[in-house]
Design a protein that fits this description.
The longest helix is centred in the N-terminal third of the chain and has 17 residues. The strands form three sheets. The chain has an eight-stranded antiparallel β-sheet with strand order 2-1-4-5-6-7-8-9. A six-stranded mixed β-sheet has the order 10-15-16-3-17-18, with helices on both faces. It is globular and about 75 Å long. By secondary structure, the protein is of the alpha+beta class. It is 27% helix and 34% strand. Among the domains are: 173 residues, no CATH class; 106 residues, no CATH class. The two termini are 34 Å apart.
């Protein structure tokens, strides 16, 4: 599953934003232009799916900091996410199988001073209809018999479902809403996102957002001893790196892949090992090719080595459909940047990636088609544009002026 387009209104430094995303995206811009605010959109979606609306807003600092300070409560907050993911539904009453490969979720919140309410919430499925044969196998693929849109709407607590389908096809709405009533409407007391049993496709849809990872590694934290009990997912600050490496070491195939990847960037590394201490603590150690008999404790490892190790795990071993890497160039020698970007682009075939950067080498190797430039307009609102779509930038490139040179000279916004 991936995000095709995201739209947001009255969110932090954004007044209005509509942006299409690639599988690999490089976000650049001056300090205080709004890069962190843009990333907060995805953190909000993750928190909404994992912890519910109230907690998601609280984690943004409350409604007064969720919305744009200048616009205030007079304008609603609106978030729309257009995604691609295969979803199947069944209408057993009409013997129909509904397949959707594209979904759009919209959340609209209205404000009253410090209070807020969900005024509208909508989930739209682009649907294709096929005959459902109740499990029988004919050996032939079923032909499509219709297509259109199915809309689940939460209008101030009133949940309804409607459809616009070709050939006048009718659906049994009761089978599409997992509620006690069998007609096309029902009352709910919370947003759709807070009731995983409400819609039959919802667990899959919710899981996508809840698995977002926004990584901002602190190389000091993985150098500490940590408890051997903990999550099998990499913490977003990298603090449980030793625990993740222990799990990788226990899988022969993963261990071989990790060894290949780390030696491509750090050829002097023979192995990264985990040492057990008393009180069930784990500690990271590194063995070099120059001296395989003695391992170096994590406290002696460079920040760059820690960051590279954490990034490789985030790129190739984390089972997340969408990740953010904040300033991955930190503490890394410029010579390795091109290889690191190559790995990001390779990993983006399996997961969607956004990386933020101030480094010209990432701009250079990231591909102009993947660059997103964030700036402030005359009113102070953040805007995002694609340098690849600007005629002035195309002219510079035709005259063999590198994209990284334009970035350094602050000419990408022309």
């Amino acid at each position: 599953m991936s995000i095709k387009t995201i739209r947001v209104s009255n969110f932090k430094s954004f007044k209005e934003l509509t942006l299409s995303l690639n599988h690999f995206n490089v976000l650049i811009g001056a300090n205080a232009a709004g890069k962190s605010n843009f990333l907060q959109i995805f953190k909000f979606l993750r928190d909404l799916a994992k912890d519910g609306l109230e907690n998601a807003i609280s984690l943004q600092g409350g409604p007064q900091y969720l919305r744009n300070i200048r616009l205030g409560p007079n304008k609603p907050f609106v978030l729309t996410v257009n995604c691609e993911r295969p979803i199947k539904l069944l209408d057993r009453k009409n013997d129909l199988e509904i397949r959707s490969f594209e979904q759009t979720y919209t959340l609209k919140i209205s404000f009253r001073k410090t209070r807020y309410e969900v005024s509208t919430e909508q989930l739209t499925l682009n649907a294709r209809l096929f005959p459902f044969t109740n499990g029988s196998k004919t050996g032939k693929a079923s032909a499509e018999i219709g297509h259109g849109e199915i809309v689940f709407l939460n209008d101030k607590g009133k949940l309804s479902v409607s459809a616009k389908l070709s050939n006048g096809t009718k659906l049994d709405y009761g089978s599409l809403l997992q509620v006690s009533r069998t007609d096309e409407t029902s009352r709910i007391s919370a947003p759709i996102f807070e009731d995983a049993a409400l819609l039959p496709m919802y667990p899959s849809f919710k899981a996508f957002f809840s698995e977002f990872g926004t990584f901002d590694f602190d190389p000091k934290l993985p150098k500490r001893a940590i408890p051997m009990t903990g999550k099998r997912e990499l913490e977003e600050d990298g603090s449980n790196l030793a625990l993740i490496l222990r799990h990788i070491a226990g899988d022969r195939q993963k261990k071989q892949l990790f060894s290949t990847l780390i030696q491509e960037l750090l050829p002097f590394v023979d192995a990264l090992e985990i040492e057990h201490f008393a009180d069930n603590l784990l500690f990271l150690k590194l063995r070099e090719n120059y001296e395989k008999e003695v391992g170096l404790p994590a406290s002696f490892l460079s920040d760059g080595t820690i960051n590279i190790t954490a990034m490789l795990i985030a790129l190739y071993f984390e089972q997340r459909p969408f990740i953010v890497l904040e300033e991955p160039e930190r503490n890394i020698h410029p010579f390795l940047i091109s290889k690191l970007v190559e790995m990001m682009r390779d990993a983006s075939s399996e997961k969607q990636i956004i990386t933020t950067t101030h480094h010209p080498e990432i701009v250079r190797h990231g591909g102009i088609e993947n660059l997103l430039l964030i700036t402030r307009d005359k009113s102070g609102f953040s805007t995002i544009s694609r340098p690849a779509e600007k005629e002035t930038i195309k002219t510079f490139l035709k005259n063999e002026i590198g994209i990284e040179e334009l970035y350094i000279q602050d000419l990408l916004g022309l």
